[in-house]
Design goal:
By secondary structure, the chain is of the alpha+beta class. It has two domains: 53 residues; 235 residues, Alpha-Beta Plaits. 30% of the residues lie in helices and 15% in strands. The chain is built from nine helices and ten strands. The strands form four sheets. It has a four-stranded mixed beta sheet. A hairpin with a 2-residue loop joins strand 2 and strand 3. The chain is globular. About 10% of the residues have low confidence.
Length: 301
């Protein structure tokens, strides 16, 4: 076959393809037009009221109620309700779902940031335990804030009354009264108290605190600048469920930043609060409850 014959044959094939494509496009447009006309005709036939059932757009489901989805929003509503009551009518408590905890340490980091904690001072560590033998090995995590005991063994041992229990259940420390004897640290069966030795992260590489370490803490609703010879340096320190946040209608930092939504906070005196509802139909445990401390922190197993 000559070169001219090949070019002629290719040209005919190209024109054939174009013709087929044009016919298909025309058919598609015709169907669309027919469908649109059918819809209009059906609407006209029904008196102009509604489009026929075959051409109806499916009804989307209603938007999900955010209060049923984001537990932090539910807890904020619970918190608002609790703050409307007298302080002695509410009892702050926490529930931690161990099946949801992923050991991300987000609660620990947010707590350090919120309270401007120095080296060696941790309010909410996450304890880790590995069990089993290879290849059947599992890891478990246990966040451990202050238990805010109803019968706190740390309170009666303080010789100056610097540690005390508030009407809302929070065990607090008066930094200005604390003499740093550390009796309360020894008395706490949960190791939930630590001592501020006046150290700074900047001391590791520099000769003084880094700029961010000079940002004051707002614990107990007051301004605390860490300087030598001033509180809270040389004081015992502990978790307060971020009392300064709670009293402003905010959740504790650890609760707000929990990626797994494993931490619940609220008023234990409110049966409708989420912190109480999540304990229903679940196996619940408290740390060292046999000691009679009556912790305000519950663990879901």
């Amino acid at each position: 076959m000559s070169k001219n014959d090949l070019l002629k044959e290719n040209g005919e094939k190209t024109e054939s393809r174009r013709g087929t494509l044009a016919k298909g496009l025309a058919l598609g447009l015709g169907l669309l037009t027919l469908d649109a006309w059918t819809g209009k005709a059906a609407q006209a036939a029904s008196g102009g009221g509604q489009v026929s059932k075959d051409s109806e757009i499916p009804t989307l489901p209603p938007p999900v109620d955010p209060w049923q989805e984001d537990v932090t929003l539910v807890m904020r509503q619970d918190l608002k309700r609790a703050l409307s009551k007298p302080v002695d009518k509410r009892h702050w408590g926490m529930v931690i779902d161990l099946q949801r905890c992923i050991g991300c340490q987000g609660c620990t980091i947010s707590c350090i940031n919120e309270n401007k904690l120095p080296p060696g001072v941790v309010y909410r560590p996450v304890l880790e335990e590995t069990s089993g033998t290879f290849p059947n090995v599992s890891k478990h995590f246990l966040p451990r804030p202050c238990m805010q005991c109803d019968n706190p063994p740390c309170v009666p041992v303080c010789p100056v009354g610097a540690t005390y229990k508030r009407p809302d259940g929070i065990v607090a420390i008066d930094y200005n009264a604390c003499i740093g004897c550390r009796y309360c640290i020894t008395a706490c069966p949960y190791s939930a108290r630590t001592f501020d030795w006046g150290e700074f992260y900047g001391d590791i590489v520099l000769s003084g605190p880094l700029p961010y370490e000079e940002v004051p803490s707002l614990e107990y609703g007051k301004v605390w600048v860490r300087e030598a010879g001033k509180s809270p340096i040389e004081n015992t320190r502990k978790c307060t469920f971020c009392l300064e946040r709670v009293e402003r209608g905010l959740l504790p930092a650890c609760t707000d930043t929990c990626f797994g939504r494993a931490t619940y906070f609220g008023d234990l005196n409110d049966p409708e609060a989420l912190v109480n509802r999540v304990r229903q139909n679940r196996q619940v445990n408290q740390l060292k409850s046999e000691l009679g401390t009556h912790p305000s922190v519950y663990y879901l197993l």
